[in-house]
């Protein structure tokens, strides 16, 4: 069986994360929203809140997980992107979540970490 390209794995993980979050009542606002400094995987609405979501897919590893892979530089870029998005689309309460997926025999084990990154902009 051929190995899947990282972009295919990332897209499949985003698809799974999006479907999982939608089943929990969140509504998609934007996907793979890009600006000059980077990209935000998913932007969803939960009530009055805008939720900026970073999706991480990792092989099982007891010493490293998806959220731990979001370093300060990445966090700063996500905050900058969120501030730009809010400036263009209207300010509202916002938070940063991480959805960490670990492949398993049934698809994915999914962990949703709300307010995973401090700050709105």
TrEMBL record:
tRNA-binding keyword on record: no
Molecular function GO terms recorded: endonuclease activity; nucleic acid binding
Domain of life of the source: Bacteria
KW RNA-binding (keyword) present: no
Keywords on record: Endonuclease, Hydrolase, Nuclease
Family from the record: Belongs to the UPF0102 family.
UniProt protein name: UPF0102 protein MIT9_P2168
Organism of derivation: Methylomarinovum caldicuralii
